[in-house]
Amino acid sequence: MLPDTHHKMKRIIRYSLLITGLSVACSAGSQNPEYHNSGHMKYNDLTPQEEKVLLHKATDRPFTGDYYLKNDKGIYICRRCNAPLYRSEDKFEAHCGWPSFDDEIPGAVKRVPDADGMRTEILCANCGGHLGHVFTGEGFTGKNTRHCVNTSSIRFIPADSVQYAPAPITAK
Question: Which amino acids are annotated catalytic?
């Protein structure tokens, strides 16, 4: 390839990547009003994977997160806003590859129909972050409910550190 042609190709590729990145960022913000923080609140910084799950409703791969086998005592909070969501005593092993809970902290989780029309999506009631899905009637526990939660959506706080847990970030 001629040197001049090589430089032109590099500029075209850089320009294409810039345009693609801008259009993805703009469409992400327009599709999800929770994507941008207002001037009154600043949610926690997220990794790219956490952002994909919490803001764009992606799903962690099964059996890859830190929490699906965790049995320690404590609470699970929203990774985006620190709101308490689940207690360890409500966690159980469903052998599905994701952390499973048969109950949430009252008022912490919002249930909405999923876009697929078949499942029920669960969201953090405080910030609207995507947590996963809830299923009923499977018979895993006496409560007959399974919150199937993405590890990227939650953070574990050990029981002996709960008093030091970060305060929830709420909208003003």
Answer: 148
